[in-house]
Every structure is written in structure tokens, then in C-alpha cells.
Amino acid sequence: MKLKDKIFLVTGGTGFIGSYVVNLLLEKGYNVNCLTLNNEFDWRLDYKNCKIDYINLLDQEKINRYIKELKPDIIFHLSAFVNAERDYYYINDMIDINLKGTMNLLYSLKDIDYSLFINTGTCEEYGDNPVPFSESQRENPVSPYSASKVAATYFCQMIKKIYNKPIITVRPFLTYGGKQISRMLIPWLIYAGIESKEIELTEGEQTRDFIYVKDVAQAYLSLAENRDNVIKEDIFNIGTGKEIKIKNVVEILKNKLNTNKYILGALKYREGETDRFFSSIQKLKKYTNWKPKYTINDGLKKTIEWFQQNKIIIEKYKNVWE
After folding, report:
1. Cα–Cα distance measured from residue 256 to residue 269, given in angstroms and rounded to the nearest whole number
2. pLDDT the model gives residue 86
3. What is the pTM assigned to this prediction?
């Protein structure tokens, strides 16, 4: 599908993955509109002329007026409350933001003849299913976050089927890269390595599917470019299709940052922790010809460079890792 004259809307456009999607679309010269809750992370956007609006998706009236005026053609929905802790405390926020927010947005679009809506799920919807995770597997959520994402996925599928709307869901795997302000493993390790802080870890024998954020952004674009093919399906994984041991990632970072502060084997594995966790990406490749470009070495190198070049930002958010 030709995208030159399309109007894009990216919700959560100043979030970690969302900002890379926005920057890629702007780099291509597309008409991009960014929707976010507040201006805290506007610094993630590389283009000063990006159109940003600050609206809470729980405000149905405001989102209705916004969508009616904008009339977007392609919607990348990345707004979410992300917290993978297995804590009952977060359930209401998860339901409000991840489910109700998504439904409010889809309701505001009910009279709009849009071309594609990409809902963002999560790889955690698979829980402890057998690997590699494929889109045909029954979901097995293991946290309020993953459960809320499963619910949103099912609602999207229902609306697609009942109202004949062009909706698909993507499930990004463990995404990393520059501008990631979270206590996820890779940014946490890089921060500690740069600051010479000690981190205690498990033996690290468990495997994960880590994918560089620019590959994820390109996957969103590839899905839009191949809209007529992908709309026949409901769900697409975005990963590398490869598993790597945590301890191998630790060793790579240890060598690149020249640190001996990562202490493998100091902690026991968490109860219920999944041993192997990686994706099948054959479906995405088949429908779009997309494939990941960055190796783990390339991606980690670029991520480290961003952390080293943005010490003022890192200092502002250091409480995330300390």
C-alpha cells in the first residue's frame, strides 16, 4: 500500500517504541500525528515539527473530537500502562488504560474509514507456553499486564469480525535500545556498567528473545506497507526468532563496558521464572518480507553509545535504576 498521502496517528508516540516509530515515519516524510498523555518524554522525538497532542484516552469526549477532526488512515496504537510485576495492586490501572483506553480509541474510530489499526500487545501474552511462541497458540497470561493485553487483543479481534474493521495485533518481544528509561535488564546493566555499580544476577542460563528497537519500528512500517496482505490475519510476532542466554548478554556488555561488576550466580532464580522464551517470526516474514537487521552485538553497541552520549538525560532518570 502506498503511504505517501496517508495520515498516520501514533498513540504513545513519545514512549520508548512509539518514539522510534514516529521518528521513522517522519524520516520517510509521512504525515505523522503523535498522541500522548503529557510532555515528559517529548525529548525522544528527533523532529521539532512533529504534531503532538496531549489527550488521555480515558477521556472519551476529547478523543472523539480529536479523531473526528483528524480522520487518520493508519493508526499505530502503542499507548499502555506497562508493568510486568505479578501484583494485584495494578489490575485497575491495567484494565483502565490497556483495555478501556483501547476500546475508547476504537469507538472514536467507528465512523472513520481507516485503512489499518495496529494494536500493540505483548510477548508476555504467551506466558509459559512451549517455545518458540507462535501466533496460533492459546494465550496464557501470567500477570495483570499480560492479562489486560490478552483482553485488548480479544476485543480487537471481536470488533474486526463483527464490524469488519481492518485491525491487527502485534506482539513485540523483549525490545531494547537507546532512549529506554526502564528497569528492564539491558538498560539497567548498561547504566550499572557505565556508573561502575555492582549488580547481582542469577546464573543466567535462561534464554530470551531480545530485539533492537529500530527493527521493531521497521516491522510496524512493513505491516502498513503490506496492509492488503496482513489484514487477512489477526496477530503477528515481532522478534528475532532466536534465543540467547541471559549470561551471554551479560558477557557481551561486560566486555563492551569493561566492567567486572556483574555478579552472575549471586541470586536464585525467581519462582515460576520461564527457562526458555523466544518467538517464531515466520508469519511476519511471510506476509511482509521483513526480517531483523541488527544482531545482538550491533544493537547493544548502539544502545551503549546512546547511554554514553546522553549523560544529562541518564542523570535525570537515574532513580529508575538505583
Report:
1. 26
2. 62
3. 0.97
